[in-house]
Amino acid sequence: MIEINEYFKKALKIIEEGKNIFITGRAGTGKSTLLQYFRENSTKNVVVLAPTGVAALNVKGQTIHSFFRFKPDVTIDKVKKMKIKRKDIYKNIDVLVIDEISMVRADLLDCMDIFMRNNGRKTRKPFGGVQVVFFGDLYQLPPVVKTKEKEIFKDYYKTPYFFSARCFEDLKLEFVELEKIYRQKDEKFIQLLNKIRNRTITDEEIEILNQRYDKYFEPSEKDMFIQLVTRNEIAERINNNMLSKLKGKIFYYRGEIEGEFERDSIPCPEELKIKKGAQVMLVNNDSMGRWVNGSVGKIIGIEEDETDIIVVKLTDGRIVEVTPVKWELFRYYYNKEELKIETEKIGTYIQYPIILAWAITIHKSQGKTFDKVIIDLSGGAFAAGQLYVALSRCTTLDGIILKSRISRKDILIDWEVVKFITRYQYKKSEEKMGKEEKIKIIEKAKEEGRKLEIVYLKTCDEKSKRIVKPYEVGEMEYKGNKFLGFKGYDEKSKELRTFRIERILSIKEI
Does 487 have pLDDT greater than 90? Predict the structure, then answer.
C-alpha cells in the first residue's frame, strides 16, 4: 500500500496541471514509488525513459537512445539531419518522464529537445510542446563524460548536468523535493547523511561515522555483510575469490536472450556461476512478494531437476526457492485505433535473478537498501556523491563497517549542483511570493507580536523549518554586503538570528 504523503500530493497536483517538473529528493524518499504510482494512475499518454538499459528495465520503460533512435555517438548536428518516417508516436505523447535525470548529460537533453521540436507537435515549443517530468537526485552519481570528450564538452556547456542544457531555461520546470525518508528511521543517522550529502558535516560528526571504522573486520558466515567498493574489477575479484574458497560442486546457468533484448539491459550474468554457501543478491521484485530487488541471502541448497531450484536463506531468516524468471523489454508504439500510446514486448531474458554479492560497486548499489554493509573506499572516493550513495544504502549506522577512515577529501560534492539547486529554489520561491509580500507578512507579525513559521534555505542547500518572532526588518549589512532581511528570536537555536529575505522559501503567520 503506497502512502501518498504531502510531497507526493504536491508533485501529482503539478503534473495533473500539465506543468513541467523536476522531482528530486534524498536517497530513500520514494522517487521510484511516486513514478510508478503516477504512471499506473494517469489517463494521459505517458512515455517513461531512462539513460541506461538496467534503469529502463527497472521502470518498465525504454532507454532514451532506443526511443529516439539515437546512435551511441549522437550529436545535435546528427539529430537535425535525422529523417523519421513514422512520427505519430512523438506527436501523441502527453507526458515524457525521464528517470535518473542526474545521469543525463546536457548535450543529450538538447538532442531530445531538438528531436521533439522536429518530430513532435509544436516546433517552436521546448520538447515539441510535450510536458516533461524529471526524476532524480543530483547529489548521487553524476553523468559520465569520457576523458577525451572533456575539452570539447566544456567549450559548449558549463557543466555536464542536464541543467546546463541550452533548452533548460525554456522548460520553466516546477521544483518539488520529496523530504520524508523511508529507508532510515534513526533521526541522528538521517542528519549525518544529509550533512554528508551537502558537505556541511563537522569534524566531530565525521568522527561519529569513523567510530564504525574497523580495518580488520571479517564478517562471520551468518552475518551476510555486503561490501560496497569503488570499481567493478574489485567486486569481481572479491566475489571470485570468495566463491573459490567454498567446497563443493560449481553450478553453471546460462541466460537465454530472445528477440531484441539489448545486452546493456541484462540485470544478471549471462553465465551465472554459483555454489552452495555462496552469498547472493536477488535482482528482481518477486511476483509473490517474497523478496525485493536488492534482497541479500545465502544459497543453502540446490535441488537438481529438469529446472534446478536454488534455495536461498535471506538475511531476515526466511527461506525462499528461486527459479528462473523472465524479464521483458518493451517498446512504445502508437495505437491508431485506440488513439493511445501502448507498449509491445520486443525481447525477453530468462535467467535466475541472482548475482554473487559478497561485493558490489557503489554505482550498482544505487536504489537498493541493505541492513549490513562494509564500505571500502580504498584509494579514496573519486566521484561526487559516491560516499553519500554508499552510506545511504544502509538502514542504520550500526549496520555499517568502514574499511578505511572517512576524511574530508572523501566527501566530494559538485558545487555547480549546489549552486543550481539553491538558486533554482530561490527563483521559484520568488515567483510564488515576491520579496515585498514576504516583508509585509514579517512587518505585520512584528506589529502584532506574532510568530512566523519559515522554511529557510542556506546557500549550501541546507533547508530548515523554523519558528521565529520578528523584531526588525529592512536593509541589513554583513561583511560590507547589504541585503534585505529581518532579525528575530529563533526558537530552534534559542537566540536572535538574522535571516535573508531571498532565502526564505515559504513564510506564514502562526
Answer: yes
